[in-house]
Write a structure and sequence with these properties.
The complex is a heterodimer of chains A (347) and B (351).
Chain A lengths: L1 H4 L13 H24 L6 H26 L7 H18 L4 H24 L5 H15 L27 H8 L1 E4 L1 E6 H19 L1 H11 L1 H6 L4 H27 L8 H16 L8 H20 L4 H27 L1
Antiparallel strand pairs in A: 1-2
Chain B lengths: L1 H21 L18 E6 L5 H17 L2 E6 L4 H14 L3 E5 L3 H13 L3 E5 L10 E4 L1 H16 L3 E6 L5 H16 L3 E7 L6 H15 L5 E4 L2 H13 L7 E5 L3 H8 L5 E6 L2 H16 L7 E4 L2 E4 H6 L5 H7 L1 H4 L17
Parallel strand pairs in B: 1-2, 1-3, 3-4, 4-5, 5-11, 6-7, 6-8, 8-9, 9-10
Antiparallel strand pairs in B: 10-12
The chains are: A mainly alpha (347), B alpha/beta (351).
Amino acid sequence: MTETLATTPTARPRAPLNLRNVLIRYGFVTLLLGLIIFFSAMTRGFASPQSAVFVLQSVSITGILALGVTATLVVGGFDLSIGSVATTAMMASSYVMVVMGGDAVTATLACLAIGVVVGLINGVLIVYMRVPDLLATLGMMFLLVGLQRIPTEGRSIATGMSMPDGSVANGTFSPEFLALGRHRFDFFLPSLLPVSVVVLIALAVVIWFFLEHTRFGRMMYAVGSNERAAQLAGAPVNAYKIGAYVISGVFASIGGILLAARLGRGDIASGNNLLLDAVAAALIGFAVLGASKPNAFGTAIGALFVGVLLQGLTMMNAPYYTQDFVKGAVLVVALVFTFALSKRGKR
Amino acid sequence: MTISHRIRNRLGLGLVAVSLLSGTALAQDMPAPFNNPGDVEIALVRYLSTGDFFQAYLSGVETQAAALGVNLRVLDSRQDAALQADMVDQAIALGVDGIIIQHGLTESMKEAAQRAVDAGIKVVAFDVNVENQAVPQIEQSDRDLARLALEQAIKDNGESFRAGYVYVAGIAPLDRRDETWREFKEKYPGIEEVAQFGTMDNPIANSVANQARSVVTANPDITVMFAPYDEFAKGVKIAVDEAGLTSSVKIYSADISTSDIAAMREPGSAWVATAATNPAVVGEVSVRALAMMLAGEDPGASVIVPPTLITQADLLDKNITNMEELGSNLPQFAHADVATPDWMPLPEGRE
């Protein structure tokens, strides 16, 4: 599957403007606008700045994870461990503050370190040990789900919890750390923009610029589209691939930090839903503007699309299973856009 | 031979004297087979084990088993229904005296429980109906949990209010709590349910927070949120705080943990009350009911552990910050006077 995901060439001649190409290029964006208009008309309170912000907030964590996984998709890989990296980072930050009594900076650095280390291990397993990417990161996923529970014997971490040895953990989440999940910047309206949304937008811009406008980014696309050719052209393919997994790991750990700051406790969780939603956003991103390849802008729009859909449906009292259904349907349609329509248009 | 008899009698006398002096229940006071508790082995066969609730349940089972002096063997199937059934067979093969089945699916556990009963093993079941007359059910009464929380909601808000309700169908305890919610809506027509939502997507609190955020934005006139599961309540609280509606919405829930206590104690917290059974107490009761059966007594077909209502005011007035303090300040939470015949030794600190 990894072959097919990223083999489309980076630069291809602009297709003539017939109906199909217009549909492929702007179909998804139009659909998104249509949805926003539909929900604004059908529900109270959807068309407001606050609502726009919480739609963004609801997808900020999965969006950040999705941007990370986009980097691995670009080099023709895949990272199944992002969900569990995020929850492991959440547990680690809680552990540092609540059990070890550390401060916000230590907790954040510990999480980022986990992201880097996991990314490096994933990369080394895939590049040097020749373990297929899906299998290596699947193994890492299970490993982390177990690892995050070992220090507390499966308990969630909160101030006042009893430790396995009978003592009580008295550390607290530091206010600076909680601010990462709860502080809001003034933006037109007072206290409107949560930190997580700002982080999402900042990371989206950074990774977009990195992938599209730097030599490193373009080389990563080259590695993804034809590894052998990139190697013959003298690119350090292995370093780029490992780098992509490190980016993915770090982004996932940032997601985990924001999650911990929002919940204010270390919740044992597999993070599988985070993984699935993030992958969905990245795959939907293939279809945005007819890119037919992993790209940061598309991933951000994909995440936004899922967020608008889910929040709108919730406002209309749609139960959770219909939301999963709709999410799946959107993903299938997006994949059809990517693989069937655009390929025919190209040839 | 005679000497050994004499020695044994002396030892027995000495032990009786000690037991009279200390006043604690020693093995000699207990009926067979607990007069020799080291030879008794019981098995706990679990379906669910991750999470605070199940950790606390296990600790309750462990402390009561230690108080009795029996050997405990824990078999954990980690949500694998087929494996859980195999583990019952494993316990039968090991020749244990009693089995506690903790959660599971009726379909997979019914026959396994019957095989254990046929093998002459005493069985009790917690929160899983194995459809067997010989197997008493240990229950935390979900209907009572919901009733206590809703009665408090009516006490605080009157008989008519606009409510949001968090529910996911198909999960047995939530379904039982849902029955009570429907009864209350019938009994008090003034309660208007304007929104129903809920999801079990992991991490649950985060997913529910996203949903609740949409719900309170679409329905800013909601004054009561009934979230009968603490992960739901946590999510609703995050959303209500983020939407700046902390002072206009009150959250009523079920279950409790140390982090829940912290959330309820926050200044002006919207989470005002929860009804809970102490999972550790449920674990203790499970072992006691099994012990009664081993001693030839009948704990009854269903052993119900009553829940306790815990309000924000209780937590603040009594300065309760974690589960231990909750137990020591609300005695009805720390111990349930259920399945306690006179001979039954209780874990330390229980009255």
